[in-house]
């Protein structure tokens, strides 16, 4: 395996794969009326597999709805918030496109802060430092969901491009070697 391939694998392992989970606190600001409640639903089984009846109940405090969910690390998770009435019947999906959260393989805990409007520019992700980093005074990292996703994708794309470039160089070297071997064989004849 080439050093470049090792680099691709190392980069990919920082972001994807593995069997670990990450504890994510999903939060959304919403003013409920008449006993309504907000729930969380998404593509992953831990988020209800897009079935509002299997959605994750959320707690309410000071205008913020929140739920803590363990999701698989090393993946991107699509999700939305849904509204239920006082009798527990599904009422509505959150507006806007599905939200996408990139959960790196190394993530242990995240806090996602969303807006009911579904506007991705009003959403951010807080990554608390590990216990040892916190003891050393490292502050939590705050990013937009979009920036986090783009960072994951750009690192993976750069690693793949580097591997492709190495493969092309390797292929050129093999072609030159094959031509040299052919020339040597012809010279011996």
Helix and strand composition category: alpha+beta
Oligomer: single chain
CATH architecture of the domain at 17-144: Sandwich
Number of strands: 11
Q: Which radius of gyration do the C-alpha atoms yield?
A: 24 Å
SSE series: HEEEEEEEEEEHEH
Q: How many individual helices? A: 3
* Name of the level-1 CATH class of the domain at 17-144: Mainly Beta
Q: In this structure, how is the largest beta sheet organized?
A: 6 strands, mixed
What is the terminal-to-terminal distance?
A: 36 Å
Strand order of the largest sheet: 4-5-1-9-10-11
Q: What overall geometry do the principal axes of the alpha carbons give?
A: globular
User: In CATH, what is the homologous superfamily of the domain at 17-144?
Assistant: Immunoglobulins
Poorly predicted runs: none
Give the CATH topology of the domain at 17-144: Immunoglobulin-like
What fraction of the residues are assigned to beta strands by DSSP? 25-35%
Helix content: 25-40%
Mean model confidence by pLDDT: 81
Helices and strands, with pairings:
Elements: H1 3-15, E1 21-29, E2 37-42, E3 56-57, E4 59-61, E5 64-72, E6 75-84, E7 90-93, E8 99-103, E9 109-115, E10 124-127, H2 131-135, E11 141-144, H3 145-188
Describe the structure.
By secondary structure, the protein is an alpha+beta fold. It has a domain at 17-144: Immunoglobulin-like (Sandwich), CATH 2.60.40. The chain has 3 helices and 11 strands; from the N terminus they run αββββββββββαβα. The chain has helices at 3-15, 131-135, 145-188; strands at 21-29, 37-42, 56-57, 59-61, 64-72, 75-84, 90-93, 99-103, 109-115, 124-127, 141-144. The strands form 2 sheets. It has a 6-stranded mixed sheet. Strands 2, 3, 6, 7 and 8 form a 5-stranded antiparallel sheet that branches. Helix 1 (3-15) runs antiparallel to helix 3 (145-188). The protein is globular.
